[in-house]
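Predicting holo structure, 2-phosphoglycolic acid bound.
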Amino acid sequence: MKIVVGNFKMNLNKEEIDNYLNVVKEYFFPNVVFCPSTIYLDSFIKNSLTVGTQDIGFMEKGAYTGDISASMYKSIGVSYAIIGHSERRKYYRDDKYVNQKLNMALKAELKPILCIGETQEERENGLTNQVLIEQITQSLQNIDKEFLKNVIIAYEPVWSIGTGNIPTNEEIFKTIDYIKTYINYEYEVDMNVLYGGSVNQDNISILEEISNVDGYLVGGCSIDVNKFVQLINYINNRS
Ligand code: PGA
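Done. Tokens:
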């Protein structure tokens, strides 16, 4: 089954979350990872839903005001952690913490969803593959080989996030093929690679034609429960 990750970002208040849960708890979606804001994770867990956090602290514990550690998330029943999302790289200079956060997640037995992707400018300058390799190399350095197979990559072109602009199926296929081939060659593991960037209930039928995508990281569409359910059902009814 394909993995579908819903990244709510900083959206939905308590009432909206309760309404969301009322709808979603009627379904059985074993392949879906919900990533609401941290304060709502427990409500999802109590409804037997699989959850991920949108970020984790870069240290194990200590004087890091405002941070929440990987092991704390693990201890309440969180299974996944999004690491290095482009918004965190942009607003919080997260690039330099990605490797450390990845390590923390793996040590705590959270499955990391490592986000990589090129900006519009990098794409226009023909730098896409180079940027992706740099992000992969920097993120995965010194990670134990036995842990590597637990890493999931999310290929998210930055210019596609929240814009409605999506690469062609051929472009996505080629880039994902490049990522998988590189990782297999360099690290001798097969990693699942998701696509993310403006995925929604309307374009999923086109994206589903791509043969090497292992799932999707969905932002905007995932905060509308009816649209998200429609999207998941489309994917799951095909497989
Ligand atoms: P989007 O966001 O689906 O709204 O483009 C994807 C993401 O940022 O993970």
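Residues 154 and 194 are 5 Å apart (CA to CA).
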